[in-house]
Amino acid sequence: MASHIVVLFKKELRVIFRDPTVLVGTLLIPLVLFPLMGSAISVSEQAAVRQLAEMEVAFLSLDGADGNGTLGDAFYLMLVSTNVSVQNATVTSASAAVNWTVERDLDTLVVLPANFTEEVAAGHRATISIYQVLKNFGPTEGAGSARVEAVVAAFNQAVAAQRAAAGLPNATAAEALYPARAQTHSIIHGTVRDVAPEIVINTVLGASLMLPLVVSIMIVMSAQLAATSVAAEKEQKTLEVLLTLPTRRENILAGKLLGVFAVSIVGTLAALIGFSSYAGSITSSLQTTDAAAAGLVPEAQGYALLLVTLLLAFVASLALAVLVASYAKDIYGAQSLMSVVYLPVFLPSIVLMFTPVEILPPAVQAVIYAVPFSYPSLAGKALYTHDYGVLYLGLVWQLVFVAVVLFLAARMFSTEKVLTARLSFRKRKRKAPEEG
């Protein structure tokens, strides 16, 4: 009994691994995919840490105009002691300091009000204005204002201790305990918005966090559908009949792609609706704001680029799936071989979910831009950043990639190779020389 099971077990292994596409899909791809996914997340984390380490803060003190800026100087020294690179703004007003900060591509601006020292020394509360420049709306972009708020908290503790020791009968309890308060603003597209940066970032993340994941899943599902369609035709021996129809073989390829494309679009819309509800449940506990009030209204140009990049990504994945599936002899082999497509689809999405592309190392940026499936995710973020330059270049690259893959798939269908192509790792045996 046990020997029969062993024999059947060995027979099943021989059947499964007879097709080399199974070896690629079940062994080689996982060995490569998961380490690369881990490396991608590690690169994202390192980029975020590097951005925090290279934090630059613009500083404008309107305190001390009368020569008494003691506490303003103390606050400045506390800010410098946090290992932040502080640049003193060479202007005389808060509005001018905002422009000064944006022109120098700095991230955060701190403005101490006039008579800051006198107000705090008298036991009253002075407001420190913090302006956070938001560019890519990444999770770490609000770190500058958070760092300054931490300095404000430390300043409050130091002054409160002095007040408690000296006693201030004319101060309220709140003024005595919190002599300074931080009022944060966001600078979005050069305009100051009276919204905290973390709230703006939460709003953008809530709207775009799931887009890379949804796009990746739907691209893979549509590619699997296209590959299965071709492999099923080969396995059931109906592809031979299909190729004998009185029509150009390119029409057969186009019909297959259009059919799968239509189903994929419907599936994508359903996934977007479902994932929007899912993402809403995740981010419901986050404090958000009205996107229009924060100046985050997507433009028609952004929607158009998102639609076009998404359509090109789908067409590229379908054509690539048909081409890859032509080398499989059955559905099982096609599905295993399609794991080759997972790598260029999922890796950019994983990176872009956690980290804006702008802060990644140049080599990683080059890889992201080289993958044609990255651009729908980049277009989703561009809805809010309004930075479309890279997307137009990406459209050209996507068109070239789609044209090349479609050409190769059409060439495959135009010959009998579509019926006989196999992926094999075995060396061909040389024919023995004929005896003369």
Question: Any overview of this molecule?
Answer:
The protein is an alpha/beta fold. The chain has two domains: 23-49 and 202-420, no CATH class; 55-194, abc type-2 transporter like domain (abc type-2 transporter like fold), CATH 3.40.1710.10. Helix content is 64%, strand content 8%. It contains 18 helices and six strands. Strands 2-1-3-4-5-6 form a six-stranded mixed β-sheet, with helices on both faces. The protein starts with a helix and ends in a 16-residue tail after the last helix.
- Counted up, domains total 2
Overall outline? elongated
The largest sheet has its strands arranged as: 2-1-3-4-5-6
Supply the helix-strand structural class.
Answer: alpha/beta
Note the beta-strand portion. Answer: 5-15%
> Please, what is the oligomeric state?
single chain
Gyration radius (Cα, Å) is: 30 Å
| Secondary structure: helix percent | 55-70%
List segments where confidence is low: pLDDT < 50 over at least 5 consecutive residues: 425-429
| Pattern of helices and strands | HHEHEHEHEHHEEHHHHHHHHHHH
* Number of DSSP-assigned strands: 6
Largest sheet: 6 strands, mixed
Number of helices: 18
Average pLDDT reading: 76
Task: Calculate the terminal CA-CA distance, rounded to whole Å.
Answer: 55 Å
